Amino acid sequence: MVVTIPKLDLMISLIGAFASSMLAFILPPVLELVHLWERRNEIRGFWVFVFAKHLFFITVGLISFVGGTVATLIQLIEAFDKPEQPH
C-alpha cells in the first residue's frame, strides 16, 4: 500500500496536524462551553476561570492547527515539486 500512495508520510502528517489539534485542544473546550452556557450566571467565576481557560485552549489549538497544517502543506508542495529520483 505504501508503494501505491506517494508521500504517504506527509499525508499522515497533514491528517495528524488537523485531527490532533482539533481533538485535543479545540473540541473539548467548545463542547464544555456549550454544555455550561445556560448555567453561566450560576457558576461563580465563570467568565474569569472557565471561559478564559477555554478561550486559551481554543487559541492554542487554532495556532497549532494552522501552524501544523501550513508546515505540512509546504512540505507536500516541496515534495511534489521535486522530480522523482530513479532507484
What would your notes on this structure say?
Its main location: membrane. Keywords: Membrane, Transmembrane, Transmembrane helix. Residues 2-73 form the Amino acid transporter transmembrane domain. By secondary structure, this protein is mainly alpha-helical. It has a domain at 45-80. Helix content is 75%, strand content 0%. The protein is rod-shaped and about 65 Å long.
**Rough outline:** rod-shaped
| Proportion in β-strands | under 5%
Compute the number of helices: 2
What class do helices, strands and sheet pairing give?
mainly alpha
GO cellular component, one term: membrane
Main location: membrane
Subcellular location: Membrane
Organism: Paragonimus westermani
Secondary structure: elements and pairs:
Blueprint: H1 8-36, H2 46-81
Helix pairs in contact: 1-2
How do you describe this structure in short?
This protein is mostly helical and 87 residues long. 75% of the residues lie in helices and 0% in strands. The chain has a domain at 45-80.
Give a quick set of tags describing it.
0% strand, rod-shaped, 87 residues, transmembrane, mainly alpha, 75% helix, membrane
